[in-house]
Specification:
Blueprint (H helix, E strand, L loop, with lengths): L7 H20 L8 H26 L4 H25 L20
Length: 110
């Protein structure tokens, strides 16, 4: 199966629900003791890194077009906007909901 063969309802409903159910079984209510926006930003940063690796893979395969590069850059820019919005949302949160007892070892920056 290819990703493009799925419609948005399958992705945003069925696939998302399956992932949510698996997460609930595995992690229960751990989200109540995690800095959730940091979790989101970590995932968004990982998405950017993965897209950069996809570009690298395409370049090394010799099959790359300017259109593909432009589209990937557009997606990366949209993800960067999502990171900015998370930063904005964080300003609205009270300290009591940004605890991170179960966050583990976070990789921040050097």
């Amino acid at each position: 199966m290819r990703l493009f063969e799925l419609d948005m309802d399958e992705i945003l409903s069925a696939w998302k629900n399956a992932r949510s159910s698996m997460g609930k079984r595995e992690y229960g209510d751990d989200h109540l003791k995690r800095y959730n926006l940091v979790d989101v930003v970590e995932e968004l940063l990982d998405a950017i890194i993965i897209l950069e690796k996809l570009l690298d893979r395409q370049v090394k395969s010799g099959v790359i077009t300017e259109e593909f590069v432009d589209e990937v850059c557009t997606v990366i820019c949209q993800i960067e906007v999502a990171v900015e919005l998370c930063n904005y949302l964080d300003r609205m949160l009270e300290d009591k909901v940004v605890t991170d007892e179960l966050g583990g070892d976070r990789v921040w920056f050097d």
